[in-house]
Amino acid sequence: MRHSASAFGFAFDATLDVLSSIIVLWRYSNAAAVHSAHREYIACVVLGVVFILSSLCILGKAIHDLATKLLPEVDDFLYSVSIVSGLVCIILAVLKFMLGRVLTSRALITDGFNSLVGGVMGFSILISAEVFRHDPTVWYLDGTIGVLIGLIIMAYGIKLLIDMVPRVRQTRHYERFE
């Protein structure tokens, strides 16, 4: 779907998912730091900042589309991409949640949340495209979903920062890993 706030958000979230996975890989990259609370908290703070920045981009695009009454263009190729990536993201989210729970890793659980948002966005593209195809007067659904998802990502990023910044400060002198 061209000119779609949901598709833009989905593409942006895919980039965010790659970044959050890289951050989680960094968190576990040093064998000596596998049990490092400080590294865990730093990873969560970086994820929080990335979430807030990406939510601002998604919100900006969605609000712009709503303000200019931009009509989405339906593309059949996007249907197949949305279904496959939506399912893959949901499966990845479940696996990351399970692994994060076993490892008691907030960073990994946050990465799972990001994958879950990607899956929801993939399916929201399908829903808004189908609704628009059957009733063009509901053109605003795509932008509205983009705003909602942007706000959810922003709220989670803010919560991460509120929870983790004090913990980074508390643990910075206790652990030193390079």
UniProtKB/TrEMBL annotation:
Transmembrane segments: 6-29, 41-62, 77-95, 107-127, 139-162
Location relative to the cell: Cytoplasmic vesicle, Secretory vesicle, Synaptic vesicle membrane; Early endosome membrane
One MF annotation (Gene Ontology) recorded for this entry: zinc ion binding
UniProt keyword Membrane, yes or no: yes
Predominant localisation class: membrane
Gene Ontology CC: early endosome membrane; synaptic vesicle membrane
Membrane-protein topology: Multi-pass membrane protein
Family the entry assigns: Belongs to the TMEM163 family.
Name of this protein: Transmembrane protein 163
